[in-house]
Amino acid sequence: MGRKLRRSSRLVDMTQHLLEHPYKLIPLTLFAEQFGSAKSSISEDLSIIKELFEYKGSGLLKTVAGAAGGVKYIPLLKRELAETVVQEICVALEKSERLLPGGYLYMSDILGNPETLNKIGKIMATVFAEREIDVVMTVETKGIPLAYATANYLNTPVVIVRRDSKVTEGSVVSINYVSGSSKRIQTMSLARRVMPEKSKVLIIDDFMKAGGTARGMIDLLKEFNAKVVGLGVLAEAADVEERLIDDYVSLAKIAHLDARNREIKVNPGNFLSQMCH
Predict the structure, then answer these.
(1) Distance (Å, rounded) from C-alpha 127 to C-alpha 83?
(2) How far apart (Å, rounded) are the C-alpha atoms in residues 137 and 150?
(3) Among residues 49, 75, 101, which one ends one of the domains?
(4) CA gyration radius, the chain
(5) 40-61 per-position pLDDT tens digit
(6) Do 35 and 138 have their domain in common?
(7) What are the angstrom distances between the C-alpha of 33 and each of 25, 37, 256, 276?
(8) Is 93 domain-assigned?
(9) Do 188 and 106 reside in the same domain of the chain?
(10) 208 lies in the same domain as 243
(11) Whole-prediction pTM value?
């Protein structure tokens, strides 16, 4: 039995534990034994924490009844907070110095900022909160930090598709796919042991133009009998003649890009229509 703590200390410790273990069912006995408190006292504490989460818009605390029950923290972000974050990202992306050849934007500073990544990950977790997700998948390299930020809130493993297979990953499945923008034939590989059969997969990436890479990942997952339950991208290009993907969520959309005059206009993507909270 754990040592007695003042209620204020107990509330702080319980809140921190819940935040660090999203989507994990935590039995009330764990807290009761840890703090040497009755389950009734723990239940009262959890009611306070639940009210705070909902007031702050940081998520839901779900109660599961029964002998094997407990509580589960579901990270969610309020729509207005998500809108504010995305607007800030759009403003940052409109800086003319970000313009790269081929209609791409420099985004490495955004993808390397832990605070921004944390917010993006929570938005993605909110958008896909009602989907059953076993794995978050991305393709190397720029999508990796986004995938980990999202997976952190969903409490799922991350699987990385490689452009070139590595000896250290053992047996791999490789496919050829057509890049949507350049129409070039490229290869992507995924180690057999990292993707359990029939997994439910959320694909996360940094940028989507025509969607060739995303289509390649979807085709690759067929080799594992896996099911794609969602596709989220940080930014998408708007001026695309033929999109290879129809069902996706974007946080930002490159609405206008004038390379000659170095003008960029970025609008929020379609994420608000997909948010469940």
Answers:
(1) 13
(2) 10
(3) 75
(4) 21
(5) 999 999 999 999 999 988 899 9
(6) no
(7) 16, 7, 58, 35
(8) yes
(9) yes
(10) yes
(11) 0.91
